[in-house]
Amino acid sequence: MIEILVTIIGLVIGSFLNVCIYRIPRKESIVFPSSHCPACGRQLTFFDLIPIVSYIFLLGRCRSCQAKISARYPLVELLTGIVFLFLYLKYGYSITFMFITIMMAVMIVVFFIDLDHLIIPDKLVIFASIIAGLMVVYNFFTPLAVYGDSSWWNPLLGALIGSGSLLLVALLGSVLFKTDEAMGGGDIKLMFPVGLVLGWRLTLLTLFLAIMIAGLYGLILLALKKTSRKSSIPFGPFIVLAFLIASIWGYQIIYWYLGVY
Ligand SMILES: [Zn+2]
Fold first, then answer.
1. How many angstroms does the Cα of residue 67 sit away from the middle of ligand 1?
2. Which residues, in sequence order, are bridge partners of residue 43?
3. Measured in angstroms, how far is the CA atom of residue 63 from the centroid of ligand 1?
4. Fewer CB within 10 A of the terminal residue: the chain, N end or C end?
């Protein structure tokens, strides 16, 4: 029963994340004005804002001007609902669930903004870092299982490894290959809260998974000849995917990899 409630809350928050994804890169306020159709400006009513259902009912079109509504909106809602459910199944109703779910919401916004605009807004990283910082403070008094051990410095080491290794990649890129595109500043900054939230073990896994998924994606694009080697692919979305996998199945993967399972 709570599973259904958590999923519905996820759908509703997903609807808000859509607003963030659209407005934050445009430097618009995420609270005011209320949601409106980007084509005709018609203000959305309560009914229009019901996740998924309104999209299906309106057949993906604005009620007054018939402009097509991107299928991404219900997709983000659905995705957020499902991810929240998975996190609940993993962590139950706990303080860890709260922290990781908020972090995940930020990460979903990062995923789509980086995909669209090739940037990770500092505001999002700062917000995530505040949430992550609170988690570190909480862990100082009551150790959280997600870190894998009870040491207070574990999340700090995670942030150091996370941001540090990407900074190293960026520095090596600029020194050895004279390029500033080896690693973006946004990715380096994003790994700071990711490291704090996941601790050093899951952060290492996140880096590993992000590089693996990005590599696979690059190979697929090359095979399909959809890209040249030079075209730039944002790395942020891969960090988000890796964070998602690590936060839900992280220790299972680590144990499996180490052959302990
Ligand atoms: Zn319209």
1. 5
2. 36
3. 6
4. N
